[in-house]
Amino acid sequence: MTLGALLAPYLAFAGKAFSREATYRMEVFTNVGSLIVRLYLMKTVWTALYAQNAAPTDVPLHAILTYTAIALLMSLVLEIDGTRAIRDHVREGTIATDLMKPISLPLYFFSDGLGQTLLHATLIVPALAVSLLLVHIDLPAPPVLAAFALSFALGYLVNFLLNFLMNCVAFWTLETFAIQLMVRWASDLLSGQIIPLIFFPGLFQTALLALPFAAIYSTPLLIYLGDIPPSGYAAAFALQAGWLLAFAALAVVVWRAAQRRVVVQGG
Amino acid sequence: MPPIIETRDLRKVFRSLKRRPGMGGALQTLFSRDYEDKVAVEGVTMALEPGELVGYIGPNGAGKSTTIKMLTGILVPTSGEVRVNGIVPYAQRRRNARTIGVVFGQRSQLYWDLPLIESFELLRAIYGVSAERYRANLASFTELLDMESFLRTPVRQLSLGQRMRGDFAAAMLHDPKVVFLDEPTIGLDVVAKEAIREFIARVNRERGTTFILTTHDLADVERLCRRIVLIDKGTLVYDGEIEALRDRYGNFRTLVVQLSEDAPEVAVEGAELESREGDIVRLRFDRRTISAEVLIRRVAEHYRVHDLSIEEPELESIIRRIYLEGYHDAPAPEEGR
Question: Could you tell me which of B184, B72, B104, B105 has the C-alpha nearest to residue A102?
């Protein structure tokens, strides 16, 4: 079979997920609306903190506002959990019908998630336009932007695998709400999505930067701001790729066990 | 021709953690390593020829869907052999999936949010159906199932009958050799049921597709199948032609009597009380031991009768008897047949 024929189903899954998401227009617009509100609130808080001199002085206000805006734009795609279909299909029992198709299910969920992501990625343009009315966003040099894009892509994959692993818990518990809530809280705080990790003190900061959550938001954002200089790119990418590989290996093990569980327990 | 589906001593045992009652029990269960074995399928041996349309019948929990899951490759048998199209399904799940189709009455494989036609296009990509074959099949199924008017409607807006027709087309687009049908007419009205049955019969006849039909609606089976496989408590009870069953049980009749007075207890020599609902009494008799005329006279002697009729056994009552009494205890076929 040719590569094209092998990939055809997965391209189709991504395409269908894209058009499916597009049918939920209201949700799509709400996402942009909520982003703008969050950006406005964050701007108010940071401006007030800086006016009181309560923030670290080595990061200027315009940099922190840029950080906040870019983090929110990134969340448009990173908050899409394409693999929640795993949990739904396990709960509804349709995972059995999925297994009756000649496809790889992890790849199916990945392409479906990618399609959803791509639709939400189109929102970045209007969201960016409105954001620029609220805050000034610094634009780094093209090589830095390229490094940011690569780091963002690695973070996207780490985020995908993290979601995949959490949703696979459903194979054992049917329910994943509690664990997802916990991981979401942890990652909101520890990934640097809201507060830059470089604001945390000493040893704590070092630990947080090494965690997988940092690979999702913090690393690309710090590259964007220039807090990770070009000389630090290799190490930053290596750490992200390390987490990516570790999660991928774990995902393979978990998926095998999950499949065996379906096969033993019967869907 | 070799059988298209073959199982030998197929067995499936589910092992689950033993649960204890109560709160303390729940806590114990958490740390316990006590397992409980439940046999779902116990030594099923059967063979299907290509092009057969077989009814796979059994009460709830008899092991029907466990068998189907083993044939589709999503369950591994505890022991025994299984082959579909010469492929061992659980060993080659994806390869097996290319040659089979499935229709579940209770769950759809269509994309809920998208127009019906888009689900078909997706399935085309999944199975790698050539453009030519896809066009031909789509045209043929659209006509046979009368789908033209709702091809572009999102699946969530379809009626159950329309959705089922869509599901049938979806399962057939890649020309599967074997199709598993699980309660395909459940919840449908009579017209929709007949349309689906006609479609199955036609595809079976014209394309030689093999069908395994699992259902509780025996009218489906009577209309479509010559052969049935009966399973109960995981064991094969009967495998053969429906006609043979009818011949075997064909001597039984039911006399339905409507009484015009209130009789506290009804007993008639030579017949067996099958059921009683109010003033309607059902008496079963064997026409080799007692004639209808004699029985009616006996009933009329003892009770005041308002109305009566004689029913021939339906497949449903035959099968109910087999579940209750077992096949081997059944009366022998009439002499000379």
Answer: B72
Q: Do A179 and A169 touch, CB atoms closer than 8 A?
A: yes
Neighbours of A252 (CB within 10 A): 11
Check A20 against B97: CB less than 8 A apart. no
3-state secondary structure of A131: helix
For helices A142-168 and A84-92, angle between their N-to-C axes, nearest 10 degrees: 20
CA distance B88 to B13: 19
- CB A192 within 8 Å of CB A217: yes
The predicted-structure confidence for A122-144, as pLDDT tens digits, reads as follows 888 888 888 888 888 989 999 99
DSSP B211: E
| Alpha-carbon span B72 to B104, nearest angstrom | 13
Which of B74, B76, B109 lies nearest to residue A267, judging by beta carbons? B74
Cβ of residue A5 closer than 8 Å to a chain B Cβ:
yes
User: Which residues, in sequence order, are bridge partners of residue B252?
Assistant: B286
Note the pLDDT tens digit of each residue in B232-262: 989 998 999 988 888 887 778 889 999 887 7
What is the bridge-based pairing of β-strands B100-104 and B178-182?
A: parallel
Q: Which residues pair with B68 in a beta bridge?
A: none
Question: B15, B78 in Cβ contact below 8 A?
Answer: no
Encoded tokens for A113: 């998630």
Q: Where are the alpha helices (DSSP H) in A93-141?
A: 95-99, 105-121, 124-134
pLDDT band at B7 (very low <50, low <70, confident <90, very high): very high
CA B319 from chain centre, in angstroms, equals 12
User: A172 — contact with chain B (CB < 8 Å)?
Assistant: no
Q: How far is the first Cα of chain B from the last one, in angstroms, to the nearest whole number?
A: 30
Contacts of A16 in chain B (CB under 8 A): 111, 114, 118, 122
Return the number of other C-beta atoms located less than 10 Å from residue A174's C-beta.
10
> Are A43 and A130 in contact, with CB atoms under 8 Å apart?
no
Residues of A in contact with B72 (CB under 8 A): 99-100
- In chain A, domain spans: 3-265
Residues near B278 by beta carbon (within 8 Å), at least 6 away in sequence: none
DSSP readout, B58-104? --TTSSHHHHHHHHTTSS--SEEEEEETTB-TTTTHHHHHHHEEEEE
Considering only CB atoms, B109 lies closest to which of A8, A97, A265, namely A97
Residues 6+ apart with CB under 8 A from A190: A197, A208, A211, A213, A214
DSSP string for residues in B171-199: HHTT--SEEEEESTTTT--HHHHHHHHHH
ipTM above 0.85, yes or no: no
- Cα angle A206, A210, A216 (rounded to 5 degrees) comes to 125
Predicted TM-score (pTM) of the model is: 0.79
